[in-house]
């Protein structure tokens, strides 16, 4: 009887740890969705005002820089969320006494971070190289 209770308690503990891991995955994916919105809106904002400045002959430097700032905010938020996610997973692995495993949201976060850095670099390069375009 006692062995059965211990086994049941261990199973509940493992299931609770898995629920915590899944909750951390969902939280990171929510941050990814939010930062993707920031970066996408910033990229679109930049290109919209670049198109408007070429059609209407007006200077749109400040609104285009707002697009760059939005992309930078998305990158910063995603970086912080990814490090928090990794810290949470390491803490759960210490409790579970398993090794740190790379989960799919972490890979997706890294890819999104690289895409954001590429977008930021391309816009910054365009602003610095061709400030009137």
Can you characterise this structure?
- The chain has 133 residues and is mainly alpha-helical.
- It has helices spanning 2-56, 61-96, 104-129.
- It has one domain.
- The termini are far apart.
- The model has no long low-confidence stretch (mean pLDDT 85).
Notable features of this structure?
mainly alpha; 133 residues
| Major pleated sheet | none
Strand segment count? 0
Low-confidence stretches: none
Number of domains: 1
Strand % is under 5%
The gross shape turns out to be rod-shaped
Which whole number gives the mean pLDDT? 85
Our measurement of the CA-to-CA distance between the termini, rounded to an integer number of angstroms, reads 77 Å
Q: Assign the structural class, choosing from mainly alpha, mainly beta, alpha/beta, alpha+beta, or little secondary structure.
A: mainly alpha
């Amino acid at each position: 009887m006692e062995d059965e209770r211990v086994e049941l308690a261990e199973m509940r503990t493992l299931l609770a740890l898995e629920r915590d891991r899944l909750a951390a995955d969902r939280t990171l994916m929510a941050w990814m969705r939010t930062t993707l919105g920031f970066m996408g809106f910033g990229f679109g904002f930049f290109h919209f005002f670049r198109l408007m400045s070429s059609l209407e002959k007006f200077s749109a430097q400040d609104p285009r820089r707002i697009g760059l700032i939005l992309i930078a905010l998305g990158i910063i938020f995603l970086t912080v969320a990814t490090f928090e996610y990794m810290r949470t997973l390491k803490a759960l692995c210490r409790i579970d006494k398993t090794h740190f495993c790379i989960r799919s949201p972490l890979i997706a976060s890294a890819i999104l971070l690289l895409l954001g850095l590429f977008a930021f670099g391309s816009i910054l390069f365009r602003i610095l190289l061709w400030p009137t375009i």
